[in-house]
Amino acid sequence: MTYQEFKDKYNGQYLDWDGEYGPQCWDLAQVYVTECLGLPSWVLSGCGVASNLLNEPKLSDLLTYFYEVPTTEMKPGDICIWKYYADDAGHIALYDSYNGYECFYFTQNPGPARVEALYGGEMHSFRLKEEKKVVPNVEKDENKNQIEVKVPELRVRTAPGLDKEIIGYANPGYYNYYKTEADVDGYGWYKISKEEEQWVAYKEEWFNVYPKKEDEYFKVKILDRKDGYVLVDLGKIWIKE
User: Fold this and answer.
1) 167, pLDDT greater than 90
2) CB of 68 within 8 A of CB of 125?
3) How many angstroms separate the CA atoms of 110 and 88, rounded?
4) How many Å apart are CA 187 and CA 177, to the nearest integer?
5) Which residues contact 70 (CB under 8 A, 6 or more apart)?
6) Mean pLDDT of 208-223
7) Which of 78, 121, 216, 240 could lock onto 82 through a cystine, CB 3.0 to 4.6 A?
8) How far apart are CA 212 and CA 160, in angstroms?
């Protein structure tokens, strides 16, 4: 379900997800997180009041699936949480649009779920993390830089470093590598995706490293140079340098 479909479905309705305290702003967000995004209820549950989602331990729960974005870069469906809004309980709503003057949100309490402009308070916005897939295995190729993973579920991170986000796992088999970093947190690191930042830490027990073989052309012996040409030891044929 998209954000637009969620809004169309529930616009004008009162949502009471947990059956307690009546339709609160939190109930709208919880229905969105569980029904529209398909996330577990514990991401938002147990916060007490909306502003507590910006404090530990609930902030860590939230950041399991979301990352914070600048309020100037919000997109429809981003979750917005106010630290202070009317009182210390805060508020939670979904960003909808900007008309050049005001920001509009899909919100609830007071009143049913609806789109309206909201003002004031310290607000933070969060966006669902995009699913990142680890690059697949490739065939063994001596003409490419490769590693051979020997263990199941080798951790793949967004950058060299044991504190970097784990985005998935590399399974046994061959992977091309495109860049290396030495001695970060005591490990060498290999970038196994050409387009994305996907890095694995090296340990002899985890994978073998196979640098590509040099191109045989670059091993030829140059016998002479003359007028922009070189004479190489390939049957003594002159080629342009």
Assistant:
1) no
2) yes
3) 16
4) 16
5) 125
6) 68
7) 121
8) 22
